[in-house]
Amino acid sequence: MKKINIAVDGTAGSGKSSVMLKVAEKLNMNFIDTGVMYRAFTKLCIDNKVDFQSDNEIKDQIKNFKFEYINEGSILVNGIDYGKNIFDYEVAENIKYVAKNNDVRSFMVEAQRKMSESKNNIVIGRDITTVVLPEAELKIYFDCSVESRAKRRFEQNKRKNVTPNVYEDILRQIQQRDDYDKNREMGALKIAPDSWYLDTSDLDIEQVIDLVLKKIEEIK
Ligand code: C5P
Question: What distance in angstroms lies between residue 1's CA and the mean position of ligand 1's atoms?
């Protein structure tokens, strides 16, 4: 089978990570979740007491961000395992300032392109189909209603023992993140015209995995 890259974008909590992780395992492909990189960078900023109102202070942290991406939820920053803390409430509250920083985005885009050079990767995020890998052999856009997404994230937090875990807070954070993700100047979440659009609101994870596997079969 020929080696391909699959670029995946979608709204927060649309199921793209869980689905594509399973697909990657099944097809023996690398799984690169770029959200983990933005989260880890935000955590580094928090640890270094950055003022999130200052684009310059955020940008200054790029030089301190020596990361090694390991897998789905696991990333080393300066040799330290950040995996456990990247789903913290404080990270979720501040990630918007990092994600709208153009210097941070340029750095991330370049790093992600390098990570994907060898093909056989499933890369997921917000700007993968449009900016990072617009030439990917398959591009997918995941969507889902806000309520279903908040419910899923709540259940996921429960399984991972993430606290605090309040449904109303999650719903508000998701709506706010959608808003920020879709409206920032650089790397805004958009549906690429040649993306395959998948609405997962009324589907369970197994159904979505089946649909994605069939689609990949078609293009391989
Ligand atoms: O996918 P996840 O929910 O972990 O992403 C967290 C946040 O990181 C997103 O809401 C978005 O603001 C940012 N992000 C981004 N570009 C990406 C991946 C994530 O701006 N490629």
Answer: 31
| pLDDT recorded at residue 114 | 97
Please state, in angstroms and as integers, the Cα–Cα distance from residue 88 to each residue in 1, 39, 95, 164, following that order.
40, 9, 11, 9
* Number of Cα atoms under 13 Å in the Cβ half of residue 200: 30
In a domain, 209, yes or no: yes
Integer angstrom CA distances of residue 32 from 114, 165, 172: 12, 26, 27
pLDDT reading at 54 higher than 70: yes
Amino acid symbol at 120? N
Share of the chain above pLDDT 90, in %: 82
Q: Indicate whether 220 belongs to any domain.
A: no
Measured in Å, residue 220 CA sits from the centre of ligand 1 at 28
Q: How many domains does the chain have?
A: 1
Residue 173 included in any domain:
yes
> What would the mean pLDDT of 49-69 be, rounded to a whole number?
97
Q: Please tell me the distance between residue 16's alpha carbon and the centre of ligand 1 in angstroms.
A: 12
Pocket lining for ligand 1, CB < 6 angstroms: 12, 34-35, 38-39, 95, 99, 125-128, 177, 181, 187
Whether pLDDT at 1 is above 70: no
Average pLDDT, the chain: 94
User: Residue 93's domain is classified under what CATH number?
Assistant: 3.40.50.300
Phi, psi angles (nearest 5°) of residue 104: -60, -45
The pTM (predicted TM-score) of the whole model is: 0.92
Q: Which atom, in ligand 1's list, is nearest to the CA of 36?
A: 4
Is pLDDT larger for residue 51 or for residue 89?
51
